[in-house]
Design a protein that fits this description.
single chain; alpha/beta; Spore Coat Polysaccharide Biosynthesis Protein SpsA, Chain A; eleven-stranded parallel beta sheet; ten-stranded parallel beta sheet; binds uridine-diphosphate-N-acetylglucosamine
Length: 449
């Protein structure tokens, strides 16, 4: 059965107390909405529709970045979750099959859980994802009759007896598209919030003699984020899971609680990650590589046997081949370092290619930016760049070439050549002592005056 996924993300998220739309707050290195998009993509839906409202332009940009195939449905006024679903009608024109509704503020729902819901659709016209809450708080409550779901009551509208129920609504729901649209059309807004609740579709379906069912999942999966405290708790939960998974996968984490992962970090078996390392999005580290303490990595690849840090920063486009060394206070951006290349101390390598075994001395800078354009620096295999060399790009240093320490290299250096780009040294015998004597005499004179 073909499926379409709708993600509701129009709400302002007023309890976040923020100018940023709720679904753009970052979790595990990406906006909250990216997590729901990823979950949806795993189902390979025939269509993916995101309902946006608050922060329309910024949310649309984030959606396009993370799921270019997604369609946007605009909800002008946030009149409730049922009203939000109704806005997807045009985007779903011509689609027939099941509709699965996800919330943009609920990042941890697993693919397996959603597959279980699809399977349960065989028995029920409407399937809702529920969970047993330790502290049900403000979640909607599921009112059941045996195994059957009768209705969902929102916290604000619930009686004391209903509030005592611990089986809660995750918000995730699945039904045939046409059926869901016709139920949504029947939803009213006579409730404590004056909103059109999607949750009311359950009672409406039951009134028509349709059956509704609950698929249960772990509470941690359906954690919905409404406040900054919940966002922080979600981040902590994500990190705890990512650390445990890395350890399970055979990664050595010296101090797991100080390592921060992104949603897509990939680390190979027997890699070693020291304390206080932060992984931004898009990082892969191969088996046996070592990331020492206090490094920050994003959008980069570290190959087998490479060593990074301590105190190194790898920015997007940094590609380290096998056995590369990147040492302390080194920044690498958009640069390919071939096998065995070394940049051990205090350097900036940006928009560059370092050949095999090239050695970059301390304090080297690729001067890649002229204020408008970025330029490329090419360093040949086994080249030896003297300490404190400024490589003014675009520039090329050939294979087996050298630059003298303190050189400013503005012209290409042929293979095997030595380039010196600095003032010639002058030595004046005895001048230092004479100069000192004169200064001391001046000081003594002033003291008398
Ligand atoms: C909702 C459910 C509640 C459930 C909880 C789980 C309803 C009426 N209530 O409550 O039963 O326990 O989620 O987290 O569905 N949205 C729109 N347009 C709107 C309103 C909301 O797109 O007009 C989006 C929001 O951006 C958000 C999602 O729908 O991503 C849920 O809305 P929210 O206001 O957070 O609902 P809750 O009060 O948490
Ligand atoms: Ca919510």
């Amino acid at each position: 059965m073909s499926i379409a996924v709708v993600i509701l993300a129009a709400g302002q998220g007023s309890r976040m107390n923020s100018d940023l739309p709720k679904v753009l707050h970052p979790l595990a290195g990406v906006p909250l909405i990216a997590h729901a998009l990823r979950t949806a993509q795993a189902l390979e839906p025939a269509r993916l529709v995101v309902v946006t409202g608050h922060g329309l332009e910024a949310v649309t940009r984030a959606v396009q970045e993370h799921a270019p195939e997604a369609l946007i449905a605009h909800q002008d006024q946030q009149l409730g979750t049922a009203h939000a679903v109704a806005q997807t009608r045009a985007a779903l024109e011509g689609f027939s099959g099941d509709l699965l509704v996800l919330y943009g503020d609920t990042p941890f729902v697993r693919e397996e859980t959603l597959q279980a819901m699809r399977a349960a659709r065989g028995e029920h016209a409407l399937v809702v994802l529920g969970f047993d809450a330790a502290d049900p708080g403000r979640y909607g409550r599921l009112v059941t009759q045996g195994e059957r779901l009768e209705r969902i009551v929102e916290y604000k509208d619930a009686s004391a007896a209903e509030r005592a129920l611990t089986l809660c609504n995750s918000g995730v729901l699945c039904a045939d598209k046409e059926r869901l649209f016709s139920l949504v059309d029947a939803v009213g807004n006579d409730n404590a919030s004056g909103e059109y609740y999607l949750t009311d579709t359950v009672a409406l379906a039951r009134a028509q003699g349709l059956s509704a069912g609950v698929v249960r999942c772990d509470e941690a999966e359906t954690l919905g984020i409404n406040t900054r405290a919940e966002l922080a708790a979600a981040e902590a939960r994500f990190q705890a899971g990512a650390r445990a998974a890395a350890l399970e996968d055979g990664v050595t984490l010296t101090a797991p609680e100080t390592v921060y992962f992104a949603f897509d970090t990939v680390i190979g078996r027997d890699a070693v990650v020291g304390p206080h390392v932060v992984f931004g999005p898009g990082v892969s580290v191969e088996s046996g590589a070592e990331i020492r303490a206090f490094c920050h990595l994003e959008g980069c690849h570290v190959s087998r046997g490479a060593q990074v840090g301590p105190f190194a920063r790898l920015r997007p486009g940094a590609e380290l081949a096998e056995d590369v060394r990147v040492g302390n206070f080194v920044e690498i951006k958009n640069a390919i370092l071939d096998e065995g290349a070394k940049v051990n101390h205090l350097s900036y390598i940006g928009d560059a290619h370092l050949g095999e075994g090239a050695n970059i001395g301390a304090g080297t800078v690729t001067c890649n930016y002229d204020g408008v354009f970025k330029h490329h620096t090419e360093i040949g295999a086994r080249a030896f760049i003297g300490s404190d060399t400024m490589l003014v790009a675009p520039v090329r240093v050939g294979a087996d070439a050298m630059t003298g320490s303190g050189s400013v290299i503005t012209e290409d250096v042929p293979d095997g050549a030595l380039a010196l780009g600095r003032a010639r040294q002058v030595v004046k015998p005895g001048l230092a002592q004479r100069l000192m004597a004169r200064l001391r005499a001046q000081k003594a004179d002033k003291g008398k005056g």
